[in-house]
Amino acid sequence: TGLEQELHHAYKNQEFELYFQPQIAINGGHMLAVEVLLRWQKSANEVIPPSDFLSLLEDIGLIVPVGNWVLETSCMYREEWRQKGLIPDECTICVNLSARQIIEPDFADTVKFILAQTKMPPALLELEITESILLEDQETVSEALLELQELGVLVAIDDFGTGYSSFSYLKSFPVDILKIDRSFVYDVCSDAGSAAIVSSIISLAHNLGMQVVGEGVEDDYSLRYLIDHECDRVQGFLFSEPLPYSEFIAYVETMT
Ligand code: G
Ligand code: G
Ligand code: MN
Ligand code: NA
Q1: Which part of the chain is the EAL domain (predicted)?
Q2: CA nearest to 201, candidates 188, 190, 189, 217
Q3: Ligand 2 nearest-atom number relative to CA 130
Q4: Is the CB of 62 under 6 A from ligand 1?
Q5: Is residue 96 very low, low, confident or very high in pLDDT (cuts 50, 70, 90)?
Q6: Predicted TM-score of the model (pTM)
């Protein structure tokens, strides 16, 4: 198809870009993590969001090389920012994964290689997966996650609560972090159901020894609720949108 050809061209022409969104410590307000988000800079003033091309990128397998590039570039930037004193030493970098990547037979080896090449401490890389990935091919995914855990990389469940949620996988897969889906955070102060779900996910995470991130925090009321319920980190437009490289640097400079 036309779009398929355009994506191959975009990859060859290095039209993919990374945007960055901070995650803030609920205690102290410092930056604990940075999530990396893929964009397609199709032309000078045309930025395409992943929702418009990610599934095709997966279908044609191009997500594997693009994903490797995302991983390597993210680790490289984190190390560069840390050296320049722009981010705290313990600030992690969070990279989204597709199922297609994690079921590659040598995925954990690839991650290990990238960490070595970029001299990144494994515990500073967080890999975000969705609940749907856990349903793919349970055995392959489980094996890959165990290998990643052995490497010392952290695993986060993204959009938690919206997928095919099951408590059993929280027991059987090595998971370090739950990211509460923004649809619950959005109306946590006006919807009793969302409030109950958010406070329950926070308790669940903590009872399982996991960290918990509130996503999609857009206002002080949601933030207040997350503070009161002892969420660990927050992310959302209230703090910053995902920003292109130079704007992100300007943002972190205002923080220090
Ligand atoms: O940035 P935006 O809100 O448009 O992101 C939409 C979705 O795209 C998010 O759910 C996110 O998980 C996914 N996404 C963003 N960047 C990447 C990436 O580098 N790799 C993969 N696999 N998914 C990504
Ligand atoms: O599914 P995932 O969490 O990876 O998606 C991340 C995307 O969520 C970001 O690319 C960004 O566009 C979007 N996002 C981040 N913060 C907010 C927010 O506060 N409100 C809304 N509506 N979207 C957000
Ligand atoms: Mn994410
Ligand atoms: Na999410």
Answers
A1: 1-256
A2: 188
A3: 1
A4: no
A5: very high
A6: 0.97
